[in-house]
Design a protein that fits this description.
The chain has 251 residues and is of the alpha/beta class. The chain is 43% helix and 17% strand. The protein is built from 9 helices and 7 strands, in the order E-H-E-E-H-H-E-H-H-E-H-E-H-H-H-E. The longest helix is centred in the middle third of the chain and has 21 residues, at 100-120.
Length: 251
Amino acid sequence: MATNVVIITGSSGGIGAALVEEFFGAGYQIVGLDKSLPGTSDAPMLAEVRVDLFQYSNCGNYRLGINKQILAVLPKEMTSLTIINNAATQILAPMQLLSQDHINQSLGVNAVAPFFLVQSLIEILKQYRGVVINVGSIHAKLTKKNFLAYSSSKACLDAITRAMAIELASDGIRVNGVSPAAIKTDMLVEGLSHTIGALNNLEKYHPTNSIGTPAELAGFIRLIAEGVKIFATGSIFEFSGGITHRLHDPE
């Protein structure tokens, strides 16, 4: 029986796991791509492909092998196909300490791999008038010290999103991006746990007095995947708790 299918990169991380749960709950068949997999591929609605996205971005033969694995687990009959490029690496360091490997890894995982994944599935996306959602970051436009590698790679992903949308719109393929601010993943909470009051201060810094949760972001992404029609393509949808609109002038 034909079904809705979603391919999710970074499916084992905090946001990725929330995306899997969100789309699983909506009846989608899921193909999860990640370097580390939880070993749940025996679930009837979840297929998993182990992939190193940095190697995927750099090595044509490796990429070809992974693409064959993805095609092998896609159902023969589908109602729709959605690709969510969610996986990311965040390398934080002063620019003086950034190496070529740091820059290559940031761009490779965060921007180049999403491009090649969509490129490899263009014909199937055309067939089903598919949807692509690239998960970017507030850091593509607003950033701070030590985030050069990460912010530049996410700005590149936004540019790829817009360019893909122009190239693929005539085939009925929608390509949009989501730009989240702070999301309350286990990794974020752990990173802030060493400073007393840091998480609470971060929440208060947002106009909503809160930061987003993985489940909220996953629901927002599914809304874009299902509810936004073809005229909205090439858009970068903010998910920022209003922080992108707050001035920081002295009061």
